[in-house]
Amino acid sequence: MQTFRTHAGFSLIEIMTVVAIIGIMTVLGLASLRGYSRHEETRKYAASIANVLNQARSQAVTDGRTTFVVFSEPTNGTLPFEVGQIATIVTDTDGDGKISFGDGIRPIFGPSGSQSAEISLYGRHGQNALKTAPIPPDDQSKQITDGVMGSLDDGMTLPKDPDFGVPMVVFSSRGTPVTLSAPDDWGAGAGGVYVTDNDQMLLAVLVEPLGAVHTMAWDDASQSWK
Question: How many domains is the chain built from?
Answer without folding.
Answer: 1
